[in-house]
Design a protein that fits this description.
- The complex is a heterodimer of chains A (about 190) and B (about 260).
- Chain A has about 190 residues and is an all-alpha fold.
- Chain A starts with 9 loop residues before the first helix and ends in a 5-residue tail after the last helix.
- With about 260 residues, chain B is mainly alpha-helical.
- Chain B is about 75% helix and about 0% strand.
- The two termini of chain B are about 50 Å apart.
- The chains are: A mainly alpha (about 190), B mainly alpha (about 260).
- The interface between A and B is large, with 58 and 48 residues.
């Protein structure tokens, strides 16, 4: 089992998430190995009508939101990162929980929830399904190489993960796979997903 | 420049790693040269696809870590468990004491047959009548994306006892698991019921599931119906969808 670094500063976490690759992997692992925020989220969810499964779901969603926000630049970097993650998790839970309490307390407001949800869920799901379909067409190796490259794994890290002999080989494979994806998208005339 | 180098260049541009001079030059080239713009758009489209997939990949990686490092409860768990055990024993003793008189005068308290009938009805499912509790439970499952359980709860209720609200939730859940045909039947009922709370949404989704189910002619008709009613809150959306379908570039089978 890989060991985590004893502790990361906020700057180190943010840098690692932005760098991607194995550094991102190590930071994600540290959040799961260290019970700090995870424990706080569990306590919060359990005292707010949830169970351990809910807490784990919310923690995973919260961590994902934080990583996406840091990577796409929407995280502005003010305040302590742990507090940001914790409040993201709380908001996720409130959003889920408030919706169900609103339904409980007011029959009419329930319609808004039911009304708005299916379409956005379907659109999001369909978008992801289309994307998955295109990537699957490339074959599992190509799909994995492109996914790793997209998460900023270096060519050396991709070569290690995929058991390639050299970085050069990983680079060549990535290029071939990217070409295949571009060709597949062009053939299908898919403008946007 | 080889194609690989060109892709690296596109990548540097998208990640903001080009110098301001290179960036300006490249943007100028994009404006002037249609062929370069076309090639770049194709590349960008592929990157968009990978970015959409990145969240799925992150979810997969986080899910792996989650099962690799299961959450360990703090030491307080043991204390809580012990306390729960004592509460349980105390509750059993109280129940035994309170139920004593019932067993003592068993023949005078033949309520069990009535209770049993109810339980049989409940476990048979189909003969169970719908309640507020079912709606809440179905709704809670729906909220967390457990559509199969939502359907299981609601289809366990006798058809005639399903409220309009329950039928609407059921239709939504069926749509989300891809059972468009069944879903359309429930949307139709809800739509016909003229309940103002659900009517317009049911009209709209009825059209959507008909199209999803391949009943294009009926779906198309339903959309036109919604569009014709300008007061309908989905009228504009129906219009947008119809414009797409009526385009000569996109024809649906079964539509004249």
């Amino acid at each position: 089992m890989k060991r985590m670094k004893a502790s990361y500063s906020d700057e180190e976490i943010i840098d690692s998430i932005r760098s991607g690759g194995l550094k991102l992997e190590a930071v994600m692992r540290s959040f799961y190995q260290n019970n700090g925020v995870r424990g706080k989220v569990h306590n919060f969810i359990k005292t707010n009508s949830g169970n351990a499964q809910d807490a784990e779901d919310v923690f995973q969603d919260g961590l994902k939101c934080m990583i996406v926000a840091i990577r796409d630049g929407s995280y502005k970097g003010t305040g302590v990162l742990e507090a940001y993650l914790y409040s993201t998790c709380r908001n996720i839970w409130y959003k889920k929980f408030n919706r169900s309490t609103r339904v409980k307390s007011d029959v009419d407001s329930g319609i808004e929830v039911v009304n708005e949800n299916p379409e956005s869920i379907m659109e999001d799901r369909e978008r992801k399904e289309i994307v998955l379909k295109f990537l699957s067409k490339l074959g599992p190796t190509c799909k994995q190489v492109l996914e790793l490259w997209n998460l900023d794994y270096s060519m050396k890290e991709i070569a290690e993960k995929m058991d390639y002999k050299s970085e050069g080989m990983a680079r060549k494979k990535k290029h071939t796979c990217l070409q295949k994806l571009i060709q597949s998208l062009t053939d299908s005339n898919l403008k946007s997903v | 420049m080889t194609q690989e180098e060109l892709y690296d260049y596109y990548d540097s541009y998208l990640k903001g790693n080009l110098s301001s001079l290179d960036k300006d030059n490249f943007e100028k080239l994009l404006e002037e040269d249609v062929a370069v713009r076309f090639e770049f758009e194709k590349y960008k489209n592929a990157i968009d696809v990978l970015n959409i997939n990145a969240e799925t990949r992150l979810d997969y990686e986080l899910g792996k870590l989650r099962s690799q490092y299961p959450y360990k409860e703090e030491n307080t768990k043991r204390l809580r468990t012990d306390r729960n055990l004592y509460y349980g024993i105390a509750a059993c003793l109280i129940i035994l004491l309170l139920s004593g008189p019932y067993f003592y005068a068993y023949n005078n308290y033949r309520t069990d047959s009535i209770l049993n009938n109810e339980l049989v009805a409940y476990s048979n499912g189909q003969s169970r009548s719908g309640s507020d509790l079912d709606t809440k439970s179905a709704m809670k499952n729906f909220e967390i994306g457990n559509y199969e359980e939502t359907i299981r709860i609601l289809t366990g209720i006798k058809e005639a006892d399903l409220s309009i609200r329950q039928q609407f939730i059921l239709a939504n859940a069926l749509m989300l698991i891809g059972d468009y045909n069944k879903s359309s039947l429930y949307y139709r009922v809800v739509s016909d019921a003229q309940d103002v709370r659900f009517k317009e949404a049911a009209d709209w989704y009825y059209a959507i599931v008909l199209l999803k189910d391949g009943q294009n002619q009926s779906g198309f008709k339903q959309l036109k119906l919604i569009r014709s009613d300008r007061a309908h809150s989905y009228s504009a959306r129906a219009e947008t969808l119809l414009v797409k379908f009526e385009s000569p570039w996109r024809s649906l089978p079964g539509i004249d």
